[in-house]
Amino acid sequence: MPTSTIDWSKAVKPLIKKYKNEPHPLEAGNLYEMVVMVVLSARSNDKLINSIAPAFFNVYPNMSSLAKATADDLMPLLAKVINSANKAKWLVEIATRVKGDKNIPLEIDKMVELPGIGRKSANVIKRFAGAPYEGVIVDLHVVRVSQRLGIATSDDPVKIEKQIMNVLPREEWEAGMSMSFLGRDICRPKPLCEECLMNKVCAYYNGQKVKVG
């Protein structure tokens, strides 16, 4: 089936149904923790961030306590994290600007003004908070899955987000995180296509030429 003929709004509904209540792999207990963990997780894996988070939050349990720290204060707690020096600076700057947990912004345009937070991170934070979607989560799993499905054709996450937003109504934008879960569970670099609930509409599975970044 050519991807151009697929009603993606209808096609993604089973995928969203499967994963919509699945919590993000970052095991944050509140919005402050999710902001910190999302910043730390860039180019690192979620398992590592989950492992170092309890010690970090024991020392810095909220934005106000973090705002009193220096980047050097944070470094012993972030030793295993990739790009830890910059991430420590970003976290302190975020806390200095935001000051308190109640002031954490949930609008994308305000979140991306904070260091270490791009559109993907902002969309993850909004999903965690249960805030209305302003965009689609596009991580490395979504890049792979969206290309294989044929719902997106770009290598650029920003362009992929726009492509998905253009073919899905806002109420289906949870599809981004759902594709991320599918990429972790089934649509891996070596995919388990026979087990995939999306294989009937998948360009890759149905023998069409697709770009896979």
What would you say this structure looks like, in words?
By secondary structure, the protein is mainly α. The chain folds into two domains: 3-21 and 136-201, Orthogonal Bundle (Endonuclease Iii, domain 2), CATH 1.10.1670; 31-129, Endonuclease III, domain 1, CATH 1.10.340.30. The protein has twelve helices and no strands. Helix 10 crosses helix 12 (175-185). It is elongated, with a radius of gyration of 18 Å. The protein starts with 7 loop residues before the first helix and ends in a 28-residue tail after the last helix. The model has no long low-confidence stretch (mean pLDDT 96).
What secondary-structure arrangement, pairings included, does this model have?
Elements: H1 8-11, H2 13-19, H3 31-41, H4 46-59, H5 63-67, H6 71-74, H7 84-98, H8 108-111, H9 119-129, H10 140-149, H11 157-167, H12 175-185
Helix pairs in contact: 2-12, 3-4, 3-9, 10-12
Q: Please tell me what the overall shape is.
A: elongated
CATH class of the largest domain: Mainly Alpha
How many strands in all? 0
- The SSE order reads HHHHHHHHHHHH
Strand-pairing-aware structural class: mainly alpha
The CATH superfamily title of the largest domain: Hypothetical protein, domain 2
The main sheet comes to: none
Helix content: 40-55%
Distance between the termini: 22 Å
**Structural domains: how many:** 2
Give the C-alpha Rg.
18 Å
> pLDDT average, as an integer?
96
Protein name: Endonuclease III
Keywords: 4Fe-4S, DNA damage, Endonuclease, Glycosidase, Hydrolase, Iron, Iron-sulfur, Metal-binding, Nuclease
GO molecular function, one term: endonuclease activity
Organism: Pinibacter soli
